[in-house]
């Protein structure tokens, strides 16, 4: 095997290692949505975030796994894979921690300020959090390896920022806003300049 082939194989194995947890998560949320559609009776979506209700606190953890329909799920799948891959590319060791920070802040913020008698579901809080993490991390790290992915996500997904505005019915702008906050705080907390 030539050095070139060995390098290609090494990079392919690295990409697989980065992608596998993301693909498992995507497979799980698709299976949950299929289950939710084919099993008659109560929808799993009711297990999402129910603002200011004690039962809705469990939804903070469950919401990223639940989606309103396949269109909602598809809209979250591609950005989750792309942004998640870019985060894991350089922050694999912190990925679970930063994802947890984002989910908790996004969910708790939604639980606190979203309108009563609503249910909030979807992985978009994570997506907004990964976006903010990549951008804010580039600010703290100030390296080419951090700035290039940040510029890439700004070009590809800069339009996400509009999702934090309360202008579209049926859209959990609260989850998006606090997802951004969670991603920024995770970048600050995990920054080598922190402390």
Your description of this structure?
The chain has 195 residues and is mainly α. It has one domain (3-190): Rhomboid-like (Rhomboid-like fold). It has 7 helices and no strands. It has helices at residues 3-38, 58-62, 70-91, 95-113, 124-141, 144-157, 173-190. Helix 1 runs antiparallel to helix 3 and helix 4 packs antiparallel against helix 7 (173-190). The longest helix has 36 residues, at 3-38. The radius of gyration is 18 Å and the shape is globular.
Secondary structure: helix percent:
55-70%
CATH domain fold name: Rhomboid-like fold
Tally of DSSP helical segments: 7
CATH class: Mainly Alpha
Q: Give the end-to-end Cα distance, rounded to a whole number of Å.
A: 46 Å
Query: What's the gyration radius in Å?
Result: 18 Å
Topology:
Blueprint: H1 3-38, H2 58-62, H3 70-91, H4 95-113, H5 124-141, H6 144-157, H7 173-190
Helix pairs in contact: 1-3, 3-5, 3-6, 4-5, 4-7, 5-6, 5-7
List key phrases describing it.
195 residues, Rhomboid-like fold, mainly alpha, 7 helices
In brief, what are we looking at here?
With 195 residues, this protein is mainly alpha-helical. It is 68% helix and 0% strand.
